[in-house]
Design goal:
By secondary structure, the protein is mostly helical. It has helices spanning about 1-30, 40-60, 65-90, 95-115. The longest helix is centred in the first third of the chain and has 30 residues, at about 1-30. The radius of gyration is 15 Å and the shape is elongated. InterPro entries: DUF1294.
Length: about 120
């Protein structure tokens, strides 16, 4: 199950990076400075940082008016969870283990979501 640690770690780190990229882009927008391209934000979201993107959109009130982000971010959250379940199911077979691996991944995402939640 070492692959589970790598994939979960990858997604966790990428969500943190994506979250801070949304914050940095918002800060630069306020100051009229060079911005992070939307394509980069979409790429980070697509590669596994969808939950960080959602949290960043909510916390920094950034990209919340753009319909592309409002559509794509929840879509990628769903795809990432389903993809992780598929990976767990494929490597572990149709067992309860696949369910538990998916549940652990969701809990890791939820913990990240709550840790960075704005107070």
């Amino acid at each position: 199950m070492s692959w589970l640690k790598w994939v979960s770690g990858y997604w966790f780190v990428l969500n943190i990076v994506t979250y801070f990229c949304f914050g940095l882009d918002k800060r630069r927008a306020r100051r009229g400075r060079w911005r992070i391209p939307e394509a980069t934000l979409f790429l980070l979201t697509a590669c596994g940082g969808a939950l960080g993107a959602l949290r960043g959109m909510n916390d920094f009130r950034h990209k919340t008016r753009k319909w592309q982000f409002k559509l794509v971010v929840p879509l990628f959250i769903t795809l990432h969870v389903l993809g992780f379940y598929w990976l767990a199911f494929r490597w572990n077979g149709p067992t309860l283990t696949a369910f538990w691996i998916t549940l652990v991944t969701l809990l890791v995402h939820l913990i990240f979501f709550l840790i960075v939640k704005k107070k």
